[in-house]
């Protein structure tokens, strides 16, 4: 291999690495904020899929209703967990400290 082509390959590899690093540091965060609703939707769909399949297969509910019920159950669980967490943080809990 010629010395000139060897250094040319090294320079091309270094330039490619720098362009990829620049893309990751500057462009990727902007793209992530743009595509975040799609990522959140994908995560919700992956979480709800087993519930939907169970409702569809064992309880014999059609897919639209099982998706609605899965999200309804899931969102109510999140709401109750949030309510309980807020209650535990801000409620007057002096009775726990008494000895």
List keywords for this structure.
99 residues, mainly alpha, 3 helices, single chain
The total strand number stands at 0
Shape: elongated
The chain-level mean pLDDT equals 82
Proportion of β residues? under 5%
- What is the tally of helical segments? 3
Query: What separation lies between the terminal Cα atoms?
Result: 83 Å
**Uncertain stretches of 5 or more adjacent residues:** none
Helix percentage range: over 70%
Structure description:
This protein is mainly α and 99 residues long. The relative contact order is 0.05. Helix 1 (3-57) packs across helix 2 (63-90). The chain is elongated and about 70 Å long. The model has no long low-confidence stretch (mean pLDDT 82). The chain has three helices and no strands.
Give a nutshell description of this structure:
With 99 residues, the protein is mainly α. 88% of the residues lie in helices and 0% in strands.
Question: Which SSEs are present, and which pair or pack?
Answer:
Elements lengths: L2 H55 L5 H28 L3 H4 L2
């Amino acid at each position: 291999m010629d010395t000139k082509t060897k250094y040319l390959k090294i320079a091309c590899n270094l330039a490619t690495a720098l362009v990829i690093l620049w893309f990751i540091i500057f462009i990727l965060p902007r793209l992530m904020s743009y595509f975040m609703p799609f990522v959140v939707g994908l995560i919700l769909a992956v979480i709800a899929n087993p519930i939907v399949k169970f409702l569809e297969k064992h309880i014999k509910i059609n897919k639209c209703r099982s998706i609605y019920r899965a999200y309804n159950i899931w969102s109510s669980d999140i709401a109750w967990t949030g309510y309980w967490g807020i209650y535990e943080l801000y409620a007057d809990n002096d009775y726990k400290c008494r000895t």
